[in-house]
Write a structure and sequence with these properties.
This protein has 234 residues and is α/β, with parallel strands linked by helices. The protein is 38% helix and 21% strand. A six-stranded parallel β-sheet has the order 2-1-3-4-8-9, with helices on both faces. The chain has a three-stranded antiparallel β-sheet with strand order 5-6-7. The radius of gyration is 16 Å and the shape is globular. The protein starts with a strand and ends with a helix.
Length: 234
Amino acid sequence: MSKPTIVLVHGAFADSSSWSGVVAKLQEQGYPVVAVANPLRGVESDAAYVADVVAGVSGPVVLAGHSYGGALITRAATETPNVRALVYIAAFQPDAGESVFELSGRYPGAKLGPETTNVLEHDGEPELSIKPADFAEVFAADVPAATAAILAVTQRPVAQQALAAPFEGTPAWTKLPSWTLVANQDNAIPAQAQEFMAERASSTVRRIDASHAVAVSQPAVVAEVILAAAASVE
């Protein structure tokens, strides 16, 4: 049986290059990989884009999301029958009515907030980026300082409404098997929030002492979690 294609969806304040180390590990195992360029404009429109990418893939798909990308795979997989498994990497697993902002603030520990973000008005809509001076602590505390500094200046801003809008519809994790990697030292999404969402979704959970940028700092472990999901659908 052919291997499923692994589709990776990055989150806010990042781009698809954040998956580079993970992609290499997956390709070493012979898996076809697609790393989506996430528009970061809004859950519904971004999820529709992800769904279009997945629909263009021939055969079964394992859909993996990091951070805000988790909300997108939760929505996109409801429209894409070829998705067989979901993987959440330090990611949001929202239910109907929940927003990224609400989930990240439900438990103590999040350092992502007004004090650590810059706001840019674009076409009359605010978009957010993490202040470069705060980026390492908030996003990438276990990444080498030089790498974190590069990530800080190459980050992709996210439309504020993408993080504030409530999730609509039935989440895909109610019908698909899911795997979750909880980053215990995450300062963007508190580990307690990740644990809550994973338990609610009945995810297979792995935990690691890592920052929010776990795909950058621990690509081998991230790949192992994704490969476990992929093995279940081969």
